[in-house]
Design brief:
With 199 residues, the protein is α+β, with helices and mostly antiparallel strands. The protein is built from 10 helices and 4 strands, in the order βααβαααααααββα. Helix 5 crosses helix 8, helix 5 crosses helix 9 and helix 6 packs across helix 7.
C-alpha cells in the first residue's frame, strides 16, 4: 500500500488551515502523497449530529487561544476572519475540484487559505474570490464557469457524505487507509501511521 494521506478539509476551519501549513514538512518526512478532499463541514455536522465549537462559548474561547499556541509552535500567521458568519463557502469549496481538474490545487489552496486566515477577506464574495484566483496566476473565468458544472456540485456533496459514512465528524479529518484522525493536533499520529506503511 502506497503512503497516501486523504485530507478532508474546509476553508472555514482554522484548525484545517493550521494542518494545511504543515503538509509540506509531512510530505518531505514521509514521502507520502496527499489527496486533498474538499467537504462542506456544516453539512457534515448536520449529517452526524455534531455542532461547531463556535456554538459553545467556553469551548470557543479556549479553542481560540489554543489555536494561537499551535500557530506559534508552527511559526505561521493565524488571524481571525471577520466575515465568517456570512461567508458563502460553497463556491470556493467547489473551486477546489476545478483546481484539481486543472492541475492547480497547490496554487488554489494557498490562495484560499491565505485569504481566509491571514488576509481576513471574504473568499465567498465573487469579486474577492476572483481577485484571489487571479493573484495566484489562475484564470478566474475558468473557475467561475467550473463551479457551476453539475459534476462539480455533486462531487462536493459526495465528498461530504463519504466523510460522514467513513466516521468523520468535523474538520480537518485525515484518513490513512481506513484509519481516521481528527484535528490538526493529531498530525504526529498521522505521520506515524504513514511511516508504518511501505514507502
Amino acid at each position: 500500500m502506497a503512503r497516501e494521506l486523504e485530507f478532508f478539509f474546509d476553508f472555514m476551519s482554522p484548525p484545517t488551515y493550521l494542518a494545511y501549513t504543515q503538509m509540506p514538512g509531512l510530505i518531505a518526512r514521509t514521502g507520502a502523497t496527499v489527496r486533498f478532499r474538499p467537504m462542506f463541514t456544516i453539512g457534515l455536522l448536520q449529517l452526524t449530529g455534531n455542532r461547531s465549537p463556535r456554538e459553545v462559548p467556553n469551548k470557543a474561547r479556549w479553542m481560540g487561544a489554543d489555536l494561537q499556541r499551535w500557530a506559534r509552535r508552527y511559526g505561521v500567521a493565524l488571524g481571525g476572519n471577520s466575515h465568517i458568519d456570512t461567508l458563502k463557502i460553497i463556491p470556493p469549496l467547489r473551486g477546489a475540484f476545478v483546481a484539481a481538474g486543472r492541475g492547480e490545487t497547490d496554487a488554489y489552496l494557498a490562495a484560499m487559505f491565505r485569504g481566509m486566515w491571514v488576509e481576513d477577506v471574504n473568499i465567498g464574495e465573487a469579486a474577492t474570490w476572483a481577485r484571489l484566483i487571479g493573484g495566484a496566476g489562475l484564470d478566474p473565468d475558468a473557475y467561475a464557469a467550473g463551479v457551476e458544472r453539475a459534476e462539480v456540485k455533486e462531487a462536493l456533496r459526495a465528498n461530504t457524505q463519504e466523510a460522514a459514512d467513513r466516521g468523520a465528524f468535523g474538520a480537518p479529518s485525515f484518513f490513512v487507509g481506513d484509519e481516521l484522525f481528527w484535528g490538526q493536533d493529531r498530525l504526529a499520529f498521522v505521520e506515524e501511521a504513514l511511516m508504518a506503511l511501505p514507502a
